[in-house]
Predict the structure.
Amino acid sequence: QVQLVESGGGLVQPGGSLRLSCAASTNIFSIDFMAWYRQAPGKQRVLVARMTVGGNTNYADSVKGRFTISRDNAKNTVDLQMNSLKPEDTAVYYCNAQIGAVEKYWGQGTQVTVSS
């Protein structure tokens, strides 16, 4: 069982930045994939960014060039740096961990609101 705790959400103006952090209860190098998803009101949860244990990353087209997923080995976290935020980035952001093909874990989510 892996427990995930997100932090760093909040209210920010368009064009601003936020950094989300996901703390895992187990060593992140034992997790095959770490990812961030988001879910806007009335919409499905979608992948934002993902990182493999080897460090490879991929991003949704809508956030490429603005968001960066990274690991903090000392803190055992996976972070999401979000720059040039837009109102359409408003959503609940969820951390996800996947081990193998079957084990998937979710955090409780953190709200990000982009509004003037």
